[in-house]
Design goal:
Radius of gyration: 17 Å
Order of helices and strands: EEEHHEHEHEEEEEH
Number of strands: 10
Number of domains: 2
Strand order of the largest sheet: 3-2-1-4-5
Largest sheet: 5 strands, mixed
CATH class of the largest domain: Alpha Beta
Helix content: 10-25%
Number of helices: 5
Shape: globular
CATH topology of the largest domain: Nucleotidyltransferase, domain 5
CATH architecture of the largest domain: 2-Layer Sandwich
């Protein structure tokens, strides 16, 4: 089986193509670092992602229609970052009828920290403003949905702490990079019905409708 992994949730724009055992191709770029270069500061995830995917498929001599699954990171991250990856993944999956799954960065970090799936891992994302988004994984399985908490109010117990916010709890400092190959491998075993490709927002948007109005779902 072939699975394409896509992450645009943070400063990295990353794409990988894997089968069950190998990384066939991978491309990644730290957009945050690139933006310090005046020649690149107008190019973000949206401008780079399509070219990266095309390059990965070409390198592996694979067509989009050959893909068996697409696995995309859902967040937490910036407001626009996850939406770019999700929109692109859906646009690629739909015409080729490719199953699409979504995974939070928390899941990927926990899988890297506990590859044998034999421990209790607290995965923590630093979402700024003195808050973290946290989730506990027991033997590789999430025990609850991601929770946004004040960073000094975390009382979740675990054997290991990982993620971009791990340093709040004295854990190993981990950057916000989400490995697209691990994202793809995890996606191979997941179902779209249990892991839908929907954005994970750690807090409501700052923008409000005039007069305090709220949009109603139809």
């Amino acid at each position: 089986m072939l699975c394409l992994g896509i992450d645009t949730t943070g400063p990295w724009c990353s794409v990988a193509l894997v089968d069950e055992a190998r990384i066939l191709a991978v491309r990644r770029q730290n957009i945050g670092t690139a933006n310090n270069n005046p020649d690149n500061n107008k190019k973000g995830h949206a401008e780079r992602l399509a070219d990266m995917v095309q390059d990965v498929l070409r390198t592996a001599d694979v067509q989009a229609s050959d893909l068996d699954k697409i696995s995309v990171c859902t967040g937490p991250g910036s407001f626009t970052g996850p939406r770019i990856g999700l929109a692109f993944a859906k646009g690629l999956a739909l015409p080729h009828n490719i199953p699409l799954v979504g995974l939070p960065a928390l899941h990927v970090w926990a899988a890297i920290a506990d590859p044998e799936r034999c421990k209790t891992v607290l995965s923590v994302a630093d979402v700024k403003r003195g808050q973290v988004c946290a989730q506990v994984f027991n033997n590789g399985t999430a025990t609850h949905r991601p929770k946004t908490l004040e960073n000094d109010a975390i009382k979740l117990q675990a054997q290991m702490v990982t993620g971009s916010g791990a340093y709040f709890l004295g854990g190993e400092i981990t950057n916000s990079y989400v490995c697209p190959a691990r994202l793809a491998w995890l996606g191979l075993d997941l179902c779209p019905s249990t892991h839908p490709a929907e954005p994970l927002y750690h807090r409501p948007p700052d923008a409000k409708l005039p007069g305090g109005r709220v949009l109603q779902k139809t």
